[in-house]
């Protein structure tokens, strides 16, 4: 301001609340009206009067987008822990919150075991026999849980086993009547590619996956396709490294 007179903004850029973002082609710009205290740089003397001032913050759009994927994954990992966050951890968690709903709407969920976002697809476990054909529908949430690994996978596999067992207890009667007179149902177990069920003769019948129990890991390219609109709306929450 000249002659050693300066204006000190009371909250700087740390509390840019109710920000209005203007996404430019190469950068994001945020402006905020604040009150500033007048002081002399050499003496430190200050005035009781305040003046209106506008502070402007900019961040490179390229830098925000290129760093967002890693920051969001870090935030998703932190989101699994019920503890308060400060510093860099807080930035990562805030970045995840910005895009969380968009990722969930697209079917992706963070896997702690894999450190990735996973999406499952609906499938079916099917039995093909000369006496009867039968399929058990498997929801995408079960596929997603299976491909997360760890305890989540074990629970998903057990659920698929139970669903198939319920079906086979009915279909096995048709098979037994067709060619295994006097036999009876014994048990079912998960085998990786589906569920196998056994009757008392020792004969086993496979309910194989129709589509390979397929899941998809979120790539950075797909992440930007899904999340960029949310990031454009909150660049200062996803652009802090």
**Structural class by secondary-structure content:** alpha+beta
Q: Give the integer mean of the pLDDT values.
A: 79
Give the helix level as a range of percent: 25-40%
Rg over alpha carbons: 29 Å
N- and C-termini, Cα separation: 32 Å
Taken as a percent bin, the fraction of beta residues is 25-35%
Written as H for each helix and E for each strand, in order along the chain, the element string is EEEEHHEEEEHHEEEEHH
The strand count comes to 12
Low-confidence stretches: 4-31
Reported for the largest beta sheet, the result is:
5 strands, antiparallel
Q: Which word captures the global form? A: elongated
Strand order of the largest sheet: 8-7-11-10-9
Annotation field: number of helices: 6
Summed up:
With 241 residues, this protein is an alpha+beta fold.
Task: Provide structural commentary.
By secondary structure, the protein is of the alpha+beta class. Helix content is 38%, strand content 33%. The protein has helices at residues 61-78, 87-105, 140-146, 150-179, 220-233, 235-238, and strands spanning 5-9, 20-23, 27-40, 46-60, 109-111, 116-120, 123-128, 133-138, 185-190, 194-199, 204-209, 215-217. The strands form three sheets. Strands 8-7-11-10-9 form a five-stranded antiparallel β-sheet. Strands 1, 2, 3 and 4 form a four-stranded antiparallel β-sheet that branches. Strands 5-6-12 form a three-stranded antiparallel β-sheet.
Walk me through the topology.
Layout (H helix, E strand, L loop, with lengths): L4 E5 L10 E4 L3 E14 L5 E15 H18 L8 H19 L3 E3 L4 E5 L2 E6 L4 E6 L1 H7 L3 H30 L5 E6 L3 E6 L4 E6 L5 E3 L2 H14 L1 H4 L3
Helix pairs in contact: 1-2, 1-5, 2-5, 3-4
């Amino acid at each position: 301001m000249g002659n050693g007179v300066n204006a000190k903004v009371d909250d700087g850029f740390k509390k840019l609340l109710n920000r209005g973002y203007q996404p430019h082609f190469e950068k994001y710009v945020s402006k905020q009206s604040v009150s500033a205290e007048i002081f002399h740089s050499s003496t430190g003397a200050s005035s009781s009067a305040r003046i209106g001032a506008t502070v402007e913050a900019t961040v490179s759009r390229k830098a925000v987008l290129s760093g967002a994927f890693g920051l969001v994954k870090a935030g998703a990992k932190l989101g699994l822990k019920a503890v308060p966050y400060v510093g860099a951890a807080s930035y990562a968690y805030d970045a995840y919150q910005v895009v969380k709903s968009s990722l969930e709407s697209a079917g992706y969920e963070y896997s702690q075991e894999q450190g990735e976002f996973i999406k499952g697809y609906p499938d079916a476990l099917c039995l093909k026999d000369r006496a009867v054909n039968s399929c058990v529908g498997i929801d995408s949430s079960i596929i997603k849980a299976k491909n997360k690994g760890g305890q989540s996978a074990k629970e998903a596999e057990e659920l698929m086993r139970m669903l198939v067992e319920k079906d086979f207890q009915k279909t096995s009667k048709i098979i037994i009547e067709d060619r295994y007179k006097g036999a009876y149902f014994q048990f079912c177990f998960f085998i990786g590619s589906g569920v196998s069920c056994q009757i008392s003769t020792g004969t086993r019948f496979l309910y194989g996956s129709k589509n390979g129990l397929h899941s998809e890991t979120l790539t950075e390219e797909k992440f930007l396709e899904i999340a960029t609109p949310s990031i454009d709306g909150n660049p200062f929450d996803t652009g802090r490294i």
